[in-house]
């Protein structure tokens, strides 16, 4: 569920974020009730039918999406927990809400059609070379693109693609080129966004967050 403002309602889908030394784990959760003192009763994390035990007084992050603004989080302390009849936690907010930035650099594997444009030299001067490509992965700061054009590091391109109904057009730079052996494409190119707007970046991060949630709920990750 994508929230329109920073106010919780019973039934809202949220994310429990648990920071580890080597890995950050995300678990889908839901607001079950809103108690006194603005405490939240939320469903406890379960992964592939196994309960993920969180400890009393442990600090976790609660994440949620605000429409057209991106992913936001706050720190919460676990002050009570129950395992029967359902696994649930009582948490209290212990920090201010902040925008979650770490997802900007996380690359999510997905295939999205991309129109790639580049100005190339010809007998008539410069012409726009247009190629239809696909992403191998995407993040808030760039993407990996499958292409048949032999690029060089430093090439400037324009990437045009859609996330849902949102059109994203962003000037970009090639930062990596790798030859690959697939049926449809010859190269995998690393692309860094140069002038992506904050709203477009939020759309990408929101897409990654929602797609990961769907995969986690299906037990696929």
Q: What's this entry about, in short?
A:
By secondary structure, the chain is mainly β. Helix content is 9%, strand content 52%.
Which value, in Å, is the CA radius of gyration? 21 Å
Oligomer, anyone?
Answer: single chain
**Spans where pLDDT lies below 50 across 5 or more residues:** none
Approximate shape: elongated
Helices and strands, in order, run as: EEEEEEEEEEEEEEEEH
Strand order of the largest sheet: 1-2-3-8-7-6
Overall SS class = mainly beta
> Which CATH architecture of the largest domain?
Beta Barrel
CATH first level of the largest domain: Mainly Beta
Count the E strands. 16
Number of folding domains?
Answer: 2
Annotation field: number of helices: 1
In CATH, the topology of the largest domain is named Thrombin, subunit H
What proportion of the residues form beta strands (DSSP E)? over 45%
Helix content: under 10%
In round numbers, the mean pLDDT is 87
What does this protein look like?
- The chain has 1 helix and 16 strands.
- It has one helix spanning 198-217, and strands at 13-19, 24-34, 40-43, 46-47, 50-51, 59-66, 70-82, 88-93, 98-99, 108-109, 113-122, 125-138, 142-147, 156-163, 166-179, 187-193.
- A 6-stranded antiparallel β-barrel has the order 1-2-3-8-7-6.
- It is elongated.
- The two termini are 20 Å apart.
- The model has no long low-confidence stretch (mean pLDDT 87).
Name a few traits of the molecule:
221 residues; mainly beta; Pnp Oxidase, Chain A; Thrombin, subunit H; 2 domains; 1 helix; elongated
